Amino acid sequence: MQTSPTVRRTIPPTVWLTRGRHAGGAAEDVLRRSLRRLKDSQDIDDFLEVPDPGGSRDRVFEARVRVAGEVTVRARLSLAPATDDGQDWTLVAEAEQPWDQTWPSPAGMFWPRDPDAAGREDAATGLRPGTLNPLPEDDKAVRRLLRACARDTWHLHVVVHEAMTTDERGKVPLAHWLPPGLRDRVVEHRAAPHQLRVVNWALREFEVQVPRGGAVLLPGRPAPEGYEADAFSVRAVFLDGTEPAELVAAVARFDALPRPLPDGAQDDLTALREDWHLLTLEEELARERSLVKMYAEALEAMTRSRDLYREAAERAHEALAAYRETGAPAAGRLPAQQPASPLRNLTRRLDRLKLTAKVRRAAPDEGEERTDGATPDARGALTSALDPADGQTAVGTSQATADAQGGTAGSEDTASRTEHAAAATPSPATRR
């Protein structure tokens, strides 16, 4: 069964993000010294080391700066625990308006601005943004590297082919010509003149090719919406120390595409927006006012719900009282069961006696004829049923019941059957 592709959010236009790795030790100390120095020189407004970032093992640093006069930028750097390869870090910044790549790089709000600083390595490839990174000589190593670069959507990867061996003028990195907001996010790969075929063989699975002496931007996985290989492929890059204007324009267009958020970036962006600690007095006042407003709205909703519940309960009580006034029996209450009447019991016993007599007439005992037409068993049953004491009681009870019921037809019929049964019963003298 085919499944629909996963819908991924794109990077908001106000957000700037990147990721890296600090290869040296004691990254926390480096960040503290750099932040304190930047604050003292007024390069940033303020910074804060979050003491306990929600029970996470990561160390969190926050910094705030104003750019272009009055545009506030908030940045959050999350530093992972140290490993043998170093300490990975994630940086997410958001401005009050759409990001302008001419603004200073938020990475400079935390790390020393020395290009050779230890914290500027790409976490996916180990390469350094803003510098030249020659491709390895081994063909399989080239393929593995370019595959890793295609999976890395935190950076923009550019592959440049040198048509011929360059001098010092051709060693100027592309970042030298890029605006400040792109320098820490572009990784430049240089392919030697003899590596053109190997590079295109490795890039064939991404459906892009590097022109001889040109450059191409890797699409990444997933590719940004609107990416076309021809639109982001530059046929000629002159490595003579002049500005590669066409390549710079292609990088800027690529960065402007609605690119999907990298893996793990959504959590950091949510933490930046919802768990921000470095507040000014005005921001703290605005937050408290929003909390008061939220609590007031919640209280009003609870009060409205309580009033509705009370009104419904009063209506239910009124309906129940009106129902009871009509005299109708309460719902679910069964009528009381009347005790069995003695007359009814006597009638049942006479009915059983009649049935026994009919059976005895239908099958008389062999060699014996009865003048009275009743068998000994029938006579015994009748005698026990109409014992003098019991019979008088039953007859008296039936007569009293018939009188109480006003002489209904059912009672008269039962009393009549009782008298006939008494008359048909022989007296003790006759039996003797």
Elements, N to C (H/E): EHEEEEEHEHEHEEHHHHHHHH
Low-confidence stretches: 1-6, 365-416, 418-432
User: What value does the Rg take, in angstroms?
Assistant: 51 Å
Give, in spatial order, the strands making up the sheet with the most strands.
Answer: 1-5-4-3-2
Give a short account of the largest sheet. 5 strands, antiparallel
Structural class: alpha+beta
Mean pLDDT: 79
Shape: elongated
Tally of separate helices: 12
- Tally of extended strands? 10
**Termini gap:** 101 Å
| Beta strand % | 5-15%
Question: Helical percent range?
Answer: 40-55%
What this model shows, in words?
Mean pLDDT is 79; it is low at 1-6, 365-416 and 418-432. This protein has helices at 27-40, 139-151, 180-183, 196-203, 245-256, 265-274, 281-325, 342-362, 376-385, 388-404, 409-424, 428-431, and strands spanning 15-22, 46-50, 59-67, 71-79, 87-95, 132-134, 156-161, 186-191, 215-217, 233-234. The strands form two sheets. The chain has a five-stranded antiparallel sheet with strand order 1-5-4-3-2, sandwiched between helices. Strands 6-8-7-9-10 form a five-stranded mixed sheet, covered by helices on one side. It is built from twelve helices and ten strands. β2 (46-50) and β3 form a beta hairpin. The chain starts with 14 loop residues before the first strand and ends with a helix. It has 432 residues and is of the alpha+beta class.
